[in-house]
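User: Could you walk me through two proteins back to back? I'd like the raw sequence and the structure tokens for each, with a short line separating them so I can tell where one ends and the next begins.

Assistant: Of course. Protein one, sequence then structure:
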Amino acid sequence: MLSIVEIDYGTPKAVSANTVILQIDGKNISVPEGTSVMRAAAQAGINIPKLCATEMLDAFGSCRLCLVEIEGRKGYPASCTTPVAAGMKISTQTPKLAEIRRGVMELYISDHPLDCLTCPANGHCELQDMAGVVGLREVRYGYEGANHVFARIPASKGQKAAIHGRTHELVPNPLFSPKDESNPYFTFDPSKCIACSRCVRACDEVQGTFALTIQGRGFESKVAASQDNRFLDSECVSCGACVQACPTATLSEKSLIDKGQAEHSVTTTCAYCGVGCSFRAEMKGEEIVRMVPNKDGHANHGHSCVKGRFAIGYASHPDRITTPMIRASIADPWKVVSWDEAFAHVGSEFKRLQATYGTHSVGGITSSRCTNEETYLVQKLVRAGFGNNNVDTCARVCHSPTGYGLKATMGESAGTQDFDSIEKTDVVLVIGANPTDAHPVFGSQMKQRLRAGAKLIVIDPRRIDLVRTPHIKADYHLKLKPGTNVAVLNTMAYVIVSEGLVDHDFVARRCEPEAFAKWSAFVSQDKYSPEAMEAQTGVSAEAVRGAARLYATGGNGAIYYGLGVTEHAQGSTTVMAIANLAMATGNIGREGVGVNPLRGQNNVQGSCDMGSFPHEFPGYRHVSDVATRELFEKAWGVPLYNEPGLRIPNMFEAALDGSFKGLYVEGEDIAQSDPDTQHVTAALSAMECVVVQDLFLNETAKYAHVFLPGSSFLEKDGTFTNAERRVSRVRKVMAPKAGYADWEITQKLAQAMGYPMNYGHASEIMDEIAALTPTFHGVSFDRIDELGSVQWPCNEEHPNGTPVMHVDEFVRGKGRFMLTEYVPTREKVNAEHPLILTTGRILSQYNVGAQTRRTANVMWHDEDRLEIHPHDAEERGINDADWVGIASRSGETVLRAMVSERMQPGVVYTTFHFPESGANVITTDNSDWATNCPEYKVTAVQVTRVSQPSEWQKRFRAFSNEQQSLLDQSAAAQPADTLGQQ
């Protein structure tokens, strides 16, 4: 079911410059050409009865309720499948239509349970509504005939189901299927199904998984998941599209069954990945009944994934801590204190540290999960309150090379397109990204375009789902060796230049000629020919040449990339190589093309925009720029330091050296997410005051001296900026469980440090951001409310935002080609470590798992596993599900093996969602040459069968148990709802 506040117009909106004028029920109507009669009527306020139609899906025409009469035409055509035509005269209400509709509805109800008063859809059921609309008052057929409603029916000799002449003996009903409650989030009750096919079509057309089908024929037709499996055991990915499409209670959210219908709805933005889906939080008071994807959402258009749709239980999980705590040492129990005491303690400690060790002895880390306004205040606190530039963000370990590479080539540190641009793409190139798992809603939109005929190139060491999925097969899969991204892209450039495939007109008009000439000569060297590089990259010359030709000549080419590009020693170089390819082929500055980084977290883009890097103020302006610094000094009322501060790795080194002593961490878990875990925890242990602001006692908080309870996205106002630069509103749907939104906590800390912050609402913070940041000059809460969302730059020049960047010229003026010398990673395989480990994500889990591990998503993925190719497994005597030790130069951990042909021989893969897995115990301190982004994707390892946990895992469990005990000691004296239980 759609949201309780949304209007369903029945069929998708038509897009056409031509209009058609027609008459419906005597009313003259003008609509775009291609609009259905049903939608034209609905837009005019005339609602035609319907059951199989919904505007989320293409018209189907099966329910026969939406029949109309058209002057001059025979019969009664379905309004959903009939397009408008000029001069049409349509009647939607006549005695004959009323008779037909009542007859059709009578048949539906004759095979449907009459339990409306106790049905979870009661009050928001389309079948119930339509029965009322058509005036159904009796059902003449009853249940004497065959039916799907009852599990047992009266027996009838020689008959499958009871008819006249039945006996009194009850026998199993062969048409009945029991309710399927296997999925943790929704139920499937076949007895309520009207076989409208909306769920099947939603799975096909919207999600693209093709997990559902109509099984059987005629009256025996029924919806089945995969090969008549339970939903949990099927190919269903629990995106919720089927639940949203269902017009009855056949598919119902369990939360709706438990709590009943919502009474109001609040539009907000998902706090998971960088797609930035818009949702309607359907509420009863301050209790969430369900999250429904907003069909007017500009990023998701009413679609969702299992995380955003269902995995919100973490916000009310008993693990949540809702009172501040302090302690002198990580060996001490926590002491619960008041907010005022906590603020005073942090202010006193940070002042003491700066007085003892110097101004630069403290710093802060912003969060890509918090709002723009909260992130802005943290960096402001560090710069204006601490008096230094020691601020960094988790983008350091994911997309910092994106900022560096795109800034150098095009002049702006962000992607070029909106998501809808893909509708005009002819060739999709995906490199180092797995959209169907990490960005599933956009992954579904991408699959729609590929099924419509776009070509696909995948560059990835692993066979991701996109390589071969229902009705999609990659034209080229360049299964490169990890660490050779630059080499592969240079070989593609070699082909494009040497075969005369460069768009010279575009280059001449839009790019620096000297830089292009140098780049052209550079990539034309024999060493970068596909044949010369074949041994290093592992990709055949034939495949490289074919992919390069397709990208350069196949029409609109769009590149989408992820952490498989940036998390390398040459991450920044790879981003520049991608930009070079796009410029050389003219694939920049219009719809359907571009360079598109797929950001991992909900506000990675925003955290960078807000000035979270130690060398940049908000808007990517260097701290050494005098004019910029004077602008912020005037606004903030204090002198500002003119040298870049410490990056996260530098903070760790300085802590171990004894010069960095205090750290304020808002919403990040660096002890789990950052590489070389033992190095990170050693650095945290060396600090005297670590302040963690979060929902849970995460891995970093176990090394903290102060814990400040944060607020979830449901408990605050603000904005997130997604991967397409789209700024969307986050709206508070319930009061903060700890009493303060995160921005209010930071403001109180600033005041405790002696720096005045006095905002009354998050909108005032955005107003300050807009005043100080040129690309945000036109952004405000009111403007976003008016437009729904806005893509920066939004300013005087672009008052409605900028869906596509670099249209007439690049932000920097002329595009600059950069030389991208391939330098092999220093992380080498050898006899001791003969395999390469690379890492990634999985659909059901998110980042470090702090949120998703506290939901029913663990039913799909309850541990990190090591994927290994059958050849490598056989060599080591490893079977599926065996425990295996993974040893690198940095450390060792133990995971369960998953033997998989997704991998290529010599490469293994794991995720990092569970802290006890220790995935980052084995990653190294190698990093990108320009940004220090860690090289998560290339770690030399050995894998062997083992029978017990690693030594690190044993220490981890002992330490975690100790920290839980210390928390429990504090909890024993407190109310049960104030401290979480790990």
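----
Protein two, same layout:
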Amino acid sequence: MNLIKDIDRGTPASAEVEQVTLTIDGESVAVPAGTSIMRAASLAGTDIPKLCATDSMKAFGSCRICLVEIEGRAGTPASCTTPVADGMAVVTKSDRLERLRKGVMELYLSDHPAPEEATEMREMAEMIGVATSRYLPIADHLDAPCDTSNPYFDFDPSLCIVCSRCVRACDEVQGTFALTISGRGFGSHVSASQEEPFLTSECVSCGACVQACPTGSLQEKALKAVGLPESSAITTCAYCGVGCTFKAEMKGEEVVRMIPWKHGKANRGHSCVKGRFAWGYATHKERILEPMIRASIDQPWRQVSWEEAIAHTASEFRRLQAAHGSRSIGGVTSSRCTNEETFLVQKLVRAGFGNNNVDTCARVCHSPTGYGLKTTLGTSAGTQDFDSVEQADVMIVIGANPTDGHPVFASRMKRRMRQGAKLIVIDPRRIDMVRTPHIEAAYHLPLKPGTNVAVLTAMAHVVVTEGLTDEAFIRERCDLDEYAEWAEFVARPDHSPEAMEKYTGVPAADLRGAARLYATGGNGAIYYGLGVTEHSQGTTTVMAIANLAMVTGNIGRPGVGVNPLRGQNNVQGACDMGSFPHELSGYRHVSDEAARDLFEKLWGAPIDSEPGLRIPNMLDAARDGVFKGVYIQGEDILQSDPNTSHVAAGLKAMECVVVHDLFLNETANYAHVFLPGSTFLEKDGTFTNAERRIQLVRKVMAPKNGYADWEITQLLANAMGLDWTYTHPSQIMDEIAAVTPTFSGVSFARLDELGSIQWPCNEEAPEGTPIMHIDHFVRGKGKFVMTEYVPTDEKSGPRFPLLLTTGRTLSQYNVGSQTRRTANTVWHEEDRLEIHPHDAENRGIGEDDWVKLASRAGETTLRATITDRVAPGVVYTTFHHPLTQANVVTTEYSDWATNCPEYKVTAVQVSPSNGPSDWQEAYEAQAARSRRIAAEAAE
């Protein structure tokens, strides 16, 4: 690997089509109208010095070293703020300009330590030809104290030149507005919030300010500790479903820093605290690097060789199948692993185990998306690319918290709002998107948990009864008979906002206003998350969203669409690759003879035509004594799946649980074999993000465990009697393309050439499909579906009067196995229960008090945060920390179509507590016993 250099052209590209021609230093240059002189010069191969300018932000014109001369104009204007004009003649080099630039640079250096490191400041000083300053300042800032409070970067004010790049990055790129220039004149300085340390300020540690700083005043601690990088590679983040592209900078086998790649089409050069900084888990001391086995879960682990671990696992699986039948074992794929690794796990189950007992965590989050959108539109995925938000006029965010779950995309949404777009938030909780600096939602509809369908059907009622439908779109694109029946259904008086208010708690006037705004406000885009899908009517809600988009004509062009915000980095890919027990890759049912035939010919093995078991079915069958073994790659089902006690009982009943992961996670407490996994830094492959974008993951270091995850699955497959001979993940992708129509044009070579591809990619769309359903729906005509509101069986009452809903926080990720092993814990060291002041007062609960959270399924304890973010009658918590075990209280109610658990509605009671419950203490003790490693093996 070489160190990848990128060109910063100083100012953003112009979107104008018209070309203008000018001369720069006597050379003719043609660029789009609106281009700055600085950018035009850069495109022509001429670099103009700059300090305050960067092409990720608007021109500012404060540093005064990018001066140029323009024929016929007086003075020396800044090239960053001066647009080109037809016939303009520009001079970038002259004695006068050299003298002016040197003078300005010397003034900077008079109050700045000699730049020793490779910063832009040093580069510009050398470019201008200045090493020292002639000026002796009366006063300086060289003794200003350094702010080291943030765990990932330092702020050294002595190196700051007050160029405002960090402030502008926080404003324009991130949209947090946490930084400002305080003081005036000589006293001007960068401050976080109200002169606070960075750690306790409003800063969200996205790293935009650090990336923007030209002087090293803001700098990563790792850069100081490890040193300058020697090599780099472009790769894809392994956290949320945004799928940010990063440049991983390395020094030998050590990561120096992760820099968001500005050419990444998902993130456009931005990042969040997790992707930018939270990669330290890859070298955490708790990471397991050697395979381990044990005969029973009450014994300590014994470290063994890879050969013994694989042979033992295969022998156990064969033994179980011989004794209990071919369907007595199964597998679980990972939404954190690559497409290629996921594909191999389901192939192992189908071709090696001889059954369809394969499932994935993608089912417990977004399976209703697949079912609902395939039914209504014809494709099991979102309709738009992320760039589409730039043309949205009205956005609905329902059941999602983008600033915490998808922060990079949230920044783009906030930017669009500052440009004038309107936002409607439908959520029980007052998320940050409702109101933060410089943005405010037009409507917040704080519905009661579990009433999504009622709200959306009532919105459709308003659209239909008030004549706000897009009749031309409906006539051309949708099934008219189904539409007529649906329109009659939603127009019924019992579906009006007034009638639904008793269920939803949303004022009818607000709901009517929101519906009118969406229907008449221009391009309308709907973005949704797990607060839509993780309900007993999750699939119905997805269909209701599609109905609303179709009836208003908000499908098939930029700025509109139905957009699921996927939770993990490869949830979309896990679904695409055939991780469900009833579907092969490409969403083809296992009963489809033609599809099975395709796979059988390629794999040389029969495919069972009967759907297999989902995870809850596996657990039930294990307790019944008929399901005996499971291979779990990269998932922690004990912590992430509902009703923890039920999951634990099912795992305990099995004879061979194989966990393939980075750490001894909670599921490993009940495992008999542990296969150490590899991180995204140690493998090649692809992830598919929430916008169907397939992107390369590139290996930047050797796997510390010895193998990439796909190699481990191949070892197991061959030990089971298969004959796999893959030598690189690109060969697995070739196989995926051969059997998956939507991937038929995808290859590593093509991805390397184009940077990324959004499926479907085939002969009709050789470079992919950014926007779906442009001229017609994949299914032909759009299908309107009746969405009758059916209240959940999980109801509050005298015994459990509150409703619990769950979610995520910015600094943590999913079950926290990665982020808890980074410095991110400084922001979220424990799960806490948000409770409204009224409910807290009625129960005698104060801030930080320990409380017991009890449901029909179980109970746990955690500390309380009193806030009006939640409405009276609603409580909220996260599920990132295993000692809280929030899912011990969630129930087994699930979506009617997909079995997606109803995490978002649990009837609970909250009462004061003295600390951890008996169950938590017993669980912690059991976990400690389970994680013992035999001393002789550990030495």
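The chain is about 30% helix and 15% strand.

Let me know if you want the two compared in more detail.
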